[in-house]
Amino acid sequence: MPLPNQPPTQVPLISATDSSSLNSINDREVIKVVTTAGPQCVDKEFLTQLLTRKDVIPARKRRDFIPNDMKDNHYWERRRKNNLAAKRSREKRRLNDIVLGKNI
User: Fold this and answer.
1) 53, part of any domain
2) Pairwise CA distance, residues 43 & 10, whole Å
């Protein structure tokens, strides 16, 4: 029995060059996807089901708002550090975009 976080039963992966195995999947549409193991051919219906499952693609974490009476010096120090890190990250991304834009 599969665990709740496991994808539905998977159609066996086949080689893109193996045309005889393409016909053995009962004429279902097979598409080529790139995985960490390299390009693979998978059943389009399976891939659609996999990508539409809520537990496969995690949702963004819910924000917990802190009441004002709990905002002490430690809280404000963490916020200051986080804001500086976010600012550095945005600046680094902008610089990378500029460099990549000039090289193209």
Assistant:
1) yes
2) 8
Q: Which domain holds residue 10?
A: 1-57
> The pTM is what?
0.40
pLDDT in tens, 87-104: 999 999 999 888 887 654
Q: Of 54, 53, 33, 56, give the one whose Cα is nearest residue 43.
A: 33
Is residue 1 located within the same domain as residue 28?
Answer: yes
Backbone φ/ψ region at 9: left (φ over 0), alpha (ψ -120 to 50), beta: beta
Do residues 72 and 31 share a domain?
A: no
Give CA–CA dist 25/18, Å, rounded. 12
Separation of alpha carbons 57 and 46, rounded Å = 15
Q: Is residue 63 part of a domain?
A: no
pLDDT digits (tens, 9 = 90+) for 49-101: 777 766 666 677 788 889 999 999 999 999 999 999 999 999 999 998 888 87
Domains in the chain: how many in total? Answer: 2
